[in-house]
């Protein structure tokens, strides 16, 4: 048996170390948490993405009593962007979370379903999506969702 090692690559930085574009996206994601409908969990997530043309699209989680009828912030932003601007690849995606105490200090990571959707968008456009996982204590910066989903499954795997 051979043992394999999988490595991920990410930066951990403070808000003031972000580029102006990244900081703008982080602020938009944090603000989008207030658009969440999180009546059941109290866990509000906001997402903001920048399209290749510079346009910003936001999303927020939407819960529902008939679980799992709700949808995560990442997917509301991505599906909204795809429905309205299907010709535009996504350049960067920022994700922030808040609870009853305000914005979370520690960054949160997307769920498995959201990771797969982001991967499909990267695969569709053959363009990596930078991901910013935002907390008040700092930001994780990843160059691609493949660092969050290293053993990925895409269309080519079905051939």
Protein described:
The chain is an alpha+beta fold and 159 residues long. Helix content is 25%, strand content 25%. Strands 1, 2, 3, 4, 5, 6 and 7 form a seven-stranded mixed β-sheet that branches. A hairpin with a 2-residue loop joins strand 6 and strand 7. The longest helix has 14 residues. The protein is globular, with a radius of gyration of 16 Å. The mean pLDDT is 95.
Relevant terms:
globular; single chain; 7 strands; alpha+beta; 159 residues; seven-stranded mixed beta sheet
Short structural summary:
This protein has 159 residues and is α+β, with helices and mostly antiparallel strands. It is built from three helices and seven strands, in the order E-H-E-E-H-E-E-H-E-E.
Distance between the termini: 27 Å
Measured as a percent range, the helix fraction is 10-25%
Tell me what portion of residues adopts beta-strand conformation: 25-35%
| E-strand count | 7
Helix-strand topology string:
EHEEHEEHEE
Radius of gyration: 16 Å
Structural class: alpha+beta
- Biggest beta sheet summary: 7 strands, mixed
- Described by the principal axes of the CA atoms, the overall outline is globular
Helical element count?
3
User: pLDDT average, as an integer?
Assistant: 95
- The low-confidence parts are none
């Amino acid at each position: 048996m051979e043992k394999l090692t999988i490595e991920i690559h990410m930066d951990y930085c403070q808000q003031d170390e972000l580029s102006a574009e990244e900081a703008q996206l982080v602020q938009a994601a944090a603000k989008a948490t207030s658009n969440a409908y999180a009546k059941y969990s109290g866990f509000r997530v906001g997402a903001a993405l920048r399209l290749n043309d510079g346009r910003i699209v936001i999303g927020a989680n939407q819960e529902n009593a008939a679980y799992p009828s709700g949808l995560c912030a990442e997917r509301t932003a991505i599906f909204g962007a795809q429905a309205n601007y299907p010709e535009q690849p996504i350049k960067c995606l920022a994700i922030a979370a808040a609870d009853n105490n305000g914005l979370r200090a520690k960054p949160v990571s997307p769920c498995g379903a959201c990771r797969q959707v982001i991967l499909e968008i990267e695969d569709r456009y053959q363009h990596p999506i930078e991901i910013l996982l935002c907390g008040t204590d700092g930001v994780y910066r990843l160059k691609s969702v493949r660092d969050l989903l290293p053993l990925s499954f895409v269309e080519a795997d079905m051939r």
